[in-house]
Amino acid sequence: MTAELKSLSASLTAPKLPDNLFTVTDIDAELSKVRDDESDFIAADFSRLICAETDFSAICFRNCLFHGCRFTACNFTGCTFIDCVFKGCDISNSDFSESYFKACSFISCKAVGTAFKYSFYKNVSFDGGSFELSDFQRSKLQSVAVTDTDFSSALFSSCEIKQTELKNVTLARSVFFGTKLAGLDFTSCNIEGLTVSDTGAELKGAKVDVWQAAMFAKLLGLIIE
């Protein structure tokens, strides 16, 4: 692993949040206002907000804090998130497809069954939490750091992954079909049951330990003596 990737998590730019944030209490009223004015949510504090099946599609969020929120089956398709923090949130079964994330962080969040497909991530960190059964198909990840996070049975098919660092990540039964894994270091991760194509071409250039290598060898039909 290169020195650049070793220091990636430390070198990522932290989301920029102003000292004074506007506290959102009536989300329906504020959302209606943003849509009517064709404006963005800027420097907003959405702490402890609870929403179910709310339509946030195509909204831009800048310098916003989501702390202890619960978004159940909400629609965030086509949204833009720049300098945003998600901390201790439950966004399970919501839809973030075709969204854009830049300089954002997800801290101890729950995103079980959440859709992130066709999305773009740059300078984004995932620290703790569960993203089981999440769907990142055909997404682009660039300068992303993932630490102590559960991505069991997640879908990463046909993704483009660059300058990404994985530390103690659970990727058991996750799917990377059609995704080049060159440059990724899986040695600290649980990749039991990870799925790639029959040829294993996706694994070229990935770093694994001896036990993980043996697992993939069996997957590819090799005999180790």
Automatic annotation (TrEMBL):
<protein>
    <submittedName>
        <fullName>Pentapeptide repeat protein</fullName>
    </submittedName>
</protein>
<dbReference type="InterPro" id="IPR001646">
    <property type="entry name" value="5peptide_repeat"/>
</dbReference>
<dbReference type="InterPro" id="IPR052949">
    <property type="entry name" value="PA_immunity-related"/>
</dbReference>
<dbReference type="Pfam" id="PF13599">
    <property type="entry name" value="Pentapeptide_4"/>
</dbReference>
